[in-house]
Amino acid sequence: MNKTIFDSKAGLPRGGLNVKLGKYMTAYPTSNGRRGPWAVKGSNGQYIAYLEWYPPWKQYVLYAESDAVFSGDCLDALARFCGRLTGES
User: Fold this and answer.
1) Rounded to an integer, what distance in angstroms lies between the CA atom of residue 50 and that of residue 64?
2) Bridge partner residues of 30 (DSSP)
3) Is 65 within 8 Å of 48 (Cβ atoms)?
4) Measured between alpha carbons, how far is residue 6 from residues 17, 29, 45, 65, 70 in Å?
């Protein structure tokens, strides 16, 4: 069941729940810590990317799986989500 609870200020989930990114992707927090990594799954249920805090740039970045392909809409959704995560850190 895809259930998401949002923080009213940042729009990010709390309590280990997932976030739907566009039509085809879902992000899952992989830890409860501040600046914790997120796993991204495609609509087929396979992991396609990971979002992690990158200290030198002080922001979240995308680590894509080698065989993952992204449309412009998917890249926009990922970029917006990284921005939201970075803004909260």
Assistant:
1) 6
2) none
3) yes
4) 9, 13, 23, 27, 26
Quote the tokens at residue 29: 């927090």
pLDDT tens sequence across 9-60: 445 555 558 999 999 999 999 987 788 999 999 999 999 999 999 999 999 9
Burial of 44 (0-12, 13-18, 19+ CB in 10 A): exposed
Instruction: Identify the three-state secondary structure at position 36.
Output: coil
pLDDT of residue 77: 96
Q: What's residue 32's pLDDT?
A: 79
Count of positions (residues) in the chain: 89
| pTM for the structure as a whole | 0.79
Q: What SS3 class is residue 71?
A: coil
